[in-house]
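Q: Sequence in, structure out?
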Amino acid sequence: MPSGSPLIIRPPFQDPHHTATTASIVGGGSGSGVAKPGAASLAHKGVLFLDLAPRFSPDGSRVVFTRVRFGSTPPGQDWRITGETSALFVVYADGSDLRRVTSWGIRAGDADWSPDGTSIVFETNFTHLGNGPSVYVVRPDGSGLENLTDDHGTTGVGRFEALRFEHSFDPAWSPDGQRIVFGHGRLADGAFTEGLMAMAPDGSGRAYVSPDVAAEHQADWGTAPLR
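A: Exactly. Output:
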């Protein structure tokens, strides 16, 4: 610690670069034989930011990305992290005009631009059992937030016959802007189904893309038209 500041009076803050190595995050040695703490240790009881999943806008002028804000580990509960959340940010390609697009509360991630660059589709993560991951759309300035899938979440815990679960994730916009493909999982009446679905940009017309439903993740569109 600095000689003039024997006590830490502000929580630590770490914001590692997106090219950070595993050792720089979790700690380790560099050939000197002396182990050094990583960003995760240096942010203990403070805040650790990680920027993930960048996507250029169609015109190449802006980038949308997910910023993850890690929380803290309660005393005696090393297995648990409280306060972990995420939000979408947009920044110009030269690094200027950084702005947060979504609130931290909905835990946004995996964003994709509409072909005309006017909207961003993304997934959310669990905030509580009754609010499962869903697919949303928002404008780059943060306005026009809309839940397209409005998934059921989890209910009926404790009684298998009543257990119900639904979630949507990994959305990607089609090149012509007419459809959004995404992963969808559903548990109801004791049966679990998961596969790729597609829908219109307003959330209507949801349907599985194949009768052979199976677990699929991170789907994307090709450039050839469907026949």
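The longest strand covers residues 47-56.
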